[in-house]
Amino acid sequence: MELHLDSFMGDGYTSATISAHEWLSVIASAELHHLQVLTLSDCNLAGSIGTSMLNLSSLSLLDLSDNDITHFPQQMFHLPNLKVLDLSHNPHLTGSLPEFPPGTALQQLFLAFTNYAGRIPHSIGNLKQLSEFTVRNCSFSGPLPDSFGNLGKLALLDLSRNNFEGEIPFSFFKLSRLEALYMSSNKLSGPIPSSYANYDLPNLTYLHLSNNQLNGTIPPSLFTLPSLQELYLDQNKFIGILDDEAFPNSISSPLTMLDLSYNLLEETLQNSSQNLQASNVSTLDPTIFMVRLIYACLRASKTFRDRPFRQHHAFNRHK
């Protein structure tokens, strides 16, 4: 059984708000024991979600995004059949993540643009079925748990615009199904692991690490990741000389976007950039590429490019 009430108020009622507690209590008390999908995105729901929702034990997908919810019970994360939970774009929603016991069913968890805070629990590693996890623009803090490395099905990880600190756990570089890793605008520090022999990222396409406190040299092995198209390392503290040794002539990645601006780099790679232009970015306008590569290395860029991420498509794949 499915119940879709997305934007049900219509354009004529955009100024109205509905008590989230009262409305969802009605749904939960309707003896919809077989309800599996409930979508209430952009319904002007406001206030707290009550524990009566725990009666919906068959629920596999719950979408409460784009509302004004302020509280969501932690117990809801543990519904036995819940696979997809979207609470994103509830700017006044506060809370923290619970501990996740082994066997938790969650496959997709979207908390972006909420006010969730605290630390990511080590037990996040128990979510063995998790494929997408987004907490962009929240208030999380503390170190990143290395237990993320247990998430063998993870394809999308967006941790951007929080207050995470410390080094990037090496376990992140062993997520073989990972396609997109966004960690810009945090307080991450330390070097990027340099041994390509230990990388297992055959599908990584987008790597955004801008606006942190990362340091050390940029591992040349990053430029040989077989699927990498976008690499943003700007606004960090990387050091070193960008020459033909550090920035190899023969890049095996299909790189089309590279930003190294606002670091502590020295640039001597005129020949390398020409080779890249000819052999690796043939579909990219040469002028644009030269600006992004050469002038970025000289810290001439004036714009911080941190592409907003929005999950418009997430639920279409599960309906």
TrEMBL record:
InterPro entries: Leu-rich_rpt, Leu-rich_rpt_typical-subtyp, LRR-RLK, LRR_dom_sf, LRR_R13L4/SHOC2-like. Residues 21-137 form the Disease resistance R13L4/SHOC-2-like LRR domain. Transmembrane segments: none annotated. Keywords: Glycoprotein, Leucine-rich repeat, Repeat, Signal. Pfam families: LRR_1, LRR_14, LRR_8. Signal peptide: none annotated. The keyword Glycoprotein applies. It comes from the Eukaryota. The keyword Signal applies. Gene3D superfamilies: Ribonuclease Inhibitor. PANTHER family: LRR RECEPTOR-LIKE SERINE_THREONINE-PROTEIN KINASE FLS2, RECEPTOR KINASE-LIKE PROTEIN XA21. This is Disease resistance R13L4/SHOC-2-like LRR domain-containing protein. It comes from Stephania yunnanensis.
